[in-house]
Amino acid sequence: MTQTIKNVIMIGASGNIGAAIFKAIVDSGKFNVSVLTRPESSNTYAAGIKVIKSDYSEASLVDALNGQDAVVSALGATGLSEEVKIIDASVKAGVKRYLPSEYSANSQNAKAAALIPFFGLKVQINEHLKAQESKGLTWTAIETGPAFDWGAQMGLVGFNINTQEALILDGGMKAFSASNLSQIGNAVVAVLSKPEETANQFIYIDSFTATQNEILAEFEKTTGEKWKVTESTTEACLTEGQALFAKGDFSGLLLLLKVIILGEGYGSDFTKDAVLGNEKLGLPDQDLAFTAVALATGKAI
Length: 301
Fold this sequence. Notes:
Elements (H helix, E strand, L loop, with lengths): L6 E5 L4 H13 L3 E6 L12 E4 L4 H8 L4 E4 L9 H11 L3 E3 L10 H6 L1 H14 L7 E6 L4 H4 L7 E2 L4 E5 L5 E4 L2 H13 L7 E4 L3 E4 H12 L4 E5 L1 H13 L3 H13 L7 H4 L4 H4 L6 H10 L4
Parallel strand pairs: 1-2, 1-4, 2-3, 4-5, 5-6, 6-10, 8-12
Antiparallel strand pairs: 7-8, 9-11
Helix pairs in contact: 1-7, 2-3, 8-13, 9-10
């Protein structure tokens, strides 16, 4: 029997990545969209969006998820500890498809999972999801690399479009895959639209795959300005990042993410370390040149 998805509930719809996914699902016009929030949440949504409150107890979650065909999770790092509970409630509520909160670097890479604790937690969550297949719950995990357009506002992958500064690591020669926020949203809509073709698998996507040197050249070409460049190494970022993160300093996590994205052996080049699913999902082209122009001119991607 052909599986179709019509009723979709979103968790984490107000976060940076979650908001982009939520917008894409709503704008597609293909689904009846609901949002799951905690009772104390003050976030508001457009008319026609059903907001369901839950205290995250098992009974409350099962009640909230009843009648939903798919759950799309975009929980942040601090909320990932709730994911297994939500998955179990999804099974009891008869949900057909679960999209866990991935949308980042390659969490299936053992080296990456060992470096950052919440990546290791993602591995556990995905293993738990696989164990629910026999109970009727299907899943799709979407690996996107860093959210490039969002990250370019704050130097996530070494580039700050606002200050025109670049931090180049290890000579800038390591290629990595990255996705703009809208492309992440496009991928989620495509997965929900093609449930049979995307069931029970990891899907890797990008907007483009490039080196830091290629990105810097494109930004300097587009802005017509020579950027301020600082050279460093992933080894230095690793040492400093671990020390800061151990003290609870969030800036340490950003350094460790740079290591995972730009270091060797972390599976960050999806064109070589995985199989890109862009064509399978029918995703639009968002190459580096297109992205750089949009960011430099303040246009939406």
